[in-house]
Amino acid sequence: MPKNDMTLVEKANRYGTPMYVYDGDELKDHYDRIMSWLHQSAEVFFSFKANGNLSIASLLRSFGAGIEVASVGELLMAVKAGYSPQHIIFSGPGKRKEEIDTAIQHQIYCIIAESKEELTYIAESAKQQGKQVSVGIRINPESIESRAKIKMGGVPSPFGIDESKLGEVFDLFQAYEDTLLFKGIHMYLGTQVLDETSLLSSFEYTLNTAVRIKNEYGLTCQMVDLGGGFGIPYFQHETPLHAERLFQDVAEMIQAYESELDFPRFIIEMGRFLLAECGVYLTAIQYVKNSKGEPFLIADGGMHHHQAMTFRGRLLRNNYPMRLIKHSNQPVDVVKQTIVGPLCTPEDLIGRQVELPQGEPGDLLCIEKSGAYGLCYSPTLFLGHSSPLELLLFEGDDYIIRDRGHPEDLLLKQNMPFFKQRRVECETD
Ligand SMILES: Cc1ncc(COP(=O)(O)O)c(C=O)c1O
Predict the structure, then answer these.
(1) Which residue has the higher pLDDT, 40 or 71?
(2) Both 358 and 253 in a single domain?
(3) What are the tens digits of pLDDT across the range 179-220?
(4) Which residue range is the domain that position 184 belongs to?
(5) How far is CA 3 from the centre of its chain?
(6) What is the full DSSP assignment across 203-260?
(7) CATH number for the domain that contains residue 160
């Protein structure tokens, strides 16, 4: 969690609200701890989708992470952030043809193919460019129990290639042997998993699949991407993973397979677990109003910056972890209050009947665990409010890693060819 309340108040006073604050020192400690538990048995690839900020990606590269991108936009940012091709993989079920062409030009470590159709296009594009291309295949396992909050495998799915079609996939590799280089396999069954057994069994399934591919098809994986989905507890009923034990178990499991698999590169993908607890979203209380006996705190930030903290699309309507930092030292009662953002929709609900010290204008609301799936996961254009500033604290310095937006940003990239002219004509009639 970024520093203490005094630091957060000082940053809010200096840079204004709403804003995201990330703690780079904590991120470094967290990354180093994970790597030490893994005993360097696997590489951690940052899933860019969890936080689309260039500087966060660049910082993680400086710690040693690789990166998993899911669009050409992310790929170009990854290159700018300092990732060499060997540290980039590209997944996603709907890569556009131009994106595949660009990924081939960049000669990244591998493109992860998610369907036979996509694999065929990758091969054709590489052939046309006169290049060879390294490809991994994402496998949707036959049947596997997963306790992921959002399931992305083991069920009918747009993600990955059904395990039963592996033979057909390898026939394609054979047909395009001058163009397609088989790099290995990838499995990812879903996000926000808080059950160690479920994670370990999915990793074991992936490792066994790599063994099976070697034995049945005579193909050696140079890369085995175990996926991830490591969760963090947001709500009271959720228990954190026993991270140290879990990563040590993962390391042992990998070590048990590595010689049989001829020492491939093992990859673990990570977004939420890496970043969520290293960032907060800060928003100031602007107004306090009472409606029919119920107090409402109205903040200057909301769903357009941080959709995940609201109840939107969530089955469980629990309040996100948050605390109120009072602007004065006057003692106040703890009361139940409803906190909303500035948008004209009931969905912009930050917290319902949250027990917090009685709020006043000028107080700072700190939304915790907001380092992942915050800004990049939010409907920023909805209602036209400006985007928030993003601040990184690292080794004693402050870095504004994204400038605050401006109302005039809304005019950018919009074309209005003739309607304004029409209005003028009507007015002169
Ligand atoms: C293929 C893939 N890898 C990695 C991730 C990141 O997951 P998490 O943030 O749970 O680590 C996702 C998330 O949807 C994903 O689809």
Answers:
(1) 71
(2) no
(3) 999 999 999 989 999 999 999 999 999 999 999 999 999 999
(4) 84-270
(5) 22
(6) HHHHHHHHHHHHHHH----SEEEEEE-B----STT-----HHHHHHHHHHHHHHHHTT
(7) 3.20.20.10
Q: What's the rounded mean pLDDT across residues 41-46? A: 97
Are residues 228 and 261 both part of a single domain?
yes
Ligand 1 mutation target, pool 43, 47, 275, most atoms within 8 A of CB:
47
What average pLDDT does range 391-404 have in this prediction?
98
> Is the shortest distance between the CB of 271 and ligand 1 below 6 Å?
yes
> Is residue 188 in contact with ligand 1, taking CB distance under 6 Å?
yes
Tally of domains in the chain: 2
Ligand 1 atom with the shortest distance to the CA of 91 = 1
Q: Identify the residue whose C-alpha is closest to ligand 1 atom 6.
A: 271
CB of residue 140 inside a 6 A radius of ligand 1: no
Q: Whose CA is nearest to atom 13 of ligand 1?
A: 191
What's the CATH number where 360 sits? 2.40.37.10
- Residue 31 tokens read as 């990354």
| Distance, CA of 134 to CA of 212 (rounded, Å) | 21
Give tens-digit pLDDT for 312-342: 877 677 999 999 999 998 999 999 999 999 9
- Residue 243 makes CB contacts below 8 A (sequence gap 6+) with 33, 34, 37, 230, 273
DSSP state of 85: G
Question: Ligand 1: distance of its center to the CA of 153 in Å?
Answer: 12
In short, whether 270's Cβ falls inside 6 Å of ligand 1 is yes
Ligand 1 centroid to residue 24 C-alpha, Å: 21
Same domain, 301 and 217: no
Pairing mode, strands 88-90 and 110-113: parallel
Q: Are residues 242 and 282 in the same domain?
A: no
CA 270–ligand 1 middle distance (angstroms):
7
Q: Locate the ligand 1 atom nearest the alpha carbon of residue 228 and give its number.
A: 11
pLDDT tens track for 90-145: 999 999 999 999 999 999 999 999 999 999 999 999 999 999 999 999 999 987 66
The atom of ligand 1 lying closest to the CA of 229 is 10
